[in-house]
Each structure stands twice: as structure tokens, then as C-alpha cells.
Amino acid sequence: MKSENFETIAIRTQLERSLHKEHSAPLYLTSSYKFDDAEEMRALFANEKEGNVYSRYSNPNTSEFIEKMCLLEGAEDGFATATGMAAIFTTFGAFLKNGDHIISSRSVFGSTHQLLTNVFSKWGVTFDYADLDKPEDWEGLIKPNTKMIFVETPSNPGIDIIDLAFLGNLAKKHNQLLVVDNCFATPYLQQPLALGAHISIHSATKYIDGQGRVLGGIILGRKDLITEVMNFARHSGPSLSPFNAWILSKSLETLAVRMDRHCENALKVAEYLESHPKIKLVKYPFLPSHPQYEIAKKQMKQGGGIVTIVVQGGAEGASKFMDRLKMFSISANLADTRSIATHPATSTHSKLTEAERNIVGIEQGSIRLSIGLEHINDILADIEQALA
Hints:
The protein is an alpha/beta fold. The chain has helices spanning 6-12, 38-45, 60-73, 84-95, 110-119, 164-173, 186-189, 223-236, 242-251, 255-274, 293-299, 314-324, 354-359, 376-387, and strands at residues 77-81, 101-105, 126-130, 146-152, 177-181, 199-203, 217-221, 279-283, 306-311, 329-330, 340-342, 366-370. Helices cover 37% and strands 15% of the residues. Helix 6 (164-173) links the parallel strand 4 and strand 5 (177-181). One of its GO terms (cellular component) is cytoplasm. Its cofactor is pyridoxal 5'-phosphate. Its EC number is 2.5.1.-.
């Protein structure tokens, strides 16, 4: 039965059943595959025939995960990687060469910042940062050698938003490759490819898994672009393991219901904290006070599960708040069933200078709250007692 509904696609898309007629897709823990004859082996390696030749290239479990993600995000093809950062590195590596230039949102994950400043810079790739809240500046940064526009929206951890339709039109006008890190939104809340992006990237470690168990990443887009990604990845080897792919594919079956609860809880937390005297600032896409609230409402189904706050008292105030939390976990991860508090300035974004953090709104008092699936009364009670 064909369906256009997200939940049904996520649950009912799976591998063809084997002769054992299993209800749930089995694990294919194999590194290689048998060929019927020499001609089949030749045809598969020559890409004249589709099939599995080696699990560094493809595996039935990764193929199922990719197929689901393509259907959910409206992509023609995809490639699954071992981590979210492997997905970003592989995308950069597949399309950028010595002499190329990239425009990136200034608000990016700390490791993405390291790739731009310390890794690809050694290979002759230059970059300029642009601010998500200043879309009027983006076009002026485009150079003759600009190859790619890269953006996180919502950003980590500032929760800044940019109009993806605007960036899509800008990329089309200047023949740029628009790459969007869609990790915080997931395909359930936002679909960048429908808004003009060419590539959508996820750290599947986060909401796709959603339970803090496995690492993974995925790159989604047009078939011709993913072919370039595959050609690079075949030799650099960032492949997702079959076991992790199996976990992630099963996790997609509950993504919609999990995101509904994450978003519901996060909005209530944001509304509660916005009027709290010990909170200097609250950032959440679906709060009317968010600077890009109207854009978020236009391109996102709901506001996501991340609330970023600035506690009064700077580093000391943030440390006191986190140390007094009883139920929240203190962790560098996010998007778990369990609520998590992170201090970006000393963890995920510690490699940025103080000036670089200040530019993107990461203060010493900034805390990223990943709101979990616990009962909202317990989440609010823990926050309330920690702020008392």
C-alpha cells in the first residue's frame, strides 16, 4: 500500500523479506558478498548492475536506512556514514578542491568550525562566515571561486534560523551548491531539499536514533550529487556499520511521535523560562520573541527539542545551575529521550575563541537544554529547583 504520510512511510518501508518471512528486518553482519559467476562480479564492479559488492560500499541494512531517509526528506539518493561529522567531512571532501571558497553560517558546530579553519584550510580551501540574522550580507560574500554555501538551521547552540527559500534562490542565481545541516530539525520538522537545498545532512546520532545508543550520519540529495559523494566515500571509507544502520532504521519508526513530545515539552520549558528572573535570555524557534520566529513558523512544522538559555551570573551562574540539576544529565550529547544540559563554552564550542563565541551568542552563562521525553512536570520541577 502506497502512502504519503510520514509515519506510515517510516514504519512500513523495509527490506524485502527473506525465505524466513521475518516481520522485522534482520541484521546483515557481513563484510562481503558472493557472486553467481565471474560475469556478475565484473558487472557489479563496473556499475552496470546494481547490488552489494562490499559493505564499505553498501549493505542491505544501510540501504534500508537510506531508502527511508530519502522518502522522508524527498531525496533521490543518499549515503550513510559512521558519524554526523563524517557526513560533513565527506560532503566537503567530495565537492571542494584546492582554490575553492565556501560561505558558511557563522553559527556552526565546533567540529565543523575546526574542519573549516584547521583541516580544509591546509588543502587550499578558503571560507567566509556570514551571520544567520543578516541575510543581506550573504550575496556580497560570493566570489568567482565560491563553490558551496553551508548552513545550520536551527544552529547549534544559538538556535538561529535563516530563510532556506532565500538561500535556495541565492544558490540558484549564482550556481552554488547549497548544503544544509538539518540535524536539529529532522526531516519530520523541516525539509531543506524542498526549499532549494541541494544536499541535506544529518547527524543520525541525534534525533534519528533519539536514544543515545549509536553513532551515524547521512547525506541526502540528487542522484548525480550523491554519486560524487559515493565516489569519494568509497575510497575514504566513512561507512556506517550494518548494526548501527539497523538501529537507526528501526528508530525512524518512532521519530514522529518522539519529535511531537520533544517539541511539546521544549515549548513549555521555553515559555516557563522566558519570564524567570534568573534567566537573561531564552532562544526557541517557536517563541514569538525569537528574532526569526516568522521564518521558523514558515519552514518548520514545530520548534524542535532544543532550548538555549543564558543564566544570570555568567560562568558561575551556569555552573551553579548545572550542578544543582538532579534529573537532567550533564552531557555533550543531545536529542536523547533523557533531558540533557550542556555548557557549550567549555565543551562543544570550547575550541572557539571567546570573541568567536560572543559573535554567535555563546556567553559564559549560555546553556543548551536538550529537552527529553520525561513528564513535563518533572522536567519543569528539576529546572525550578536548580534555579531556586
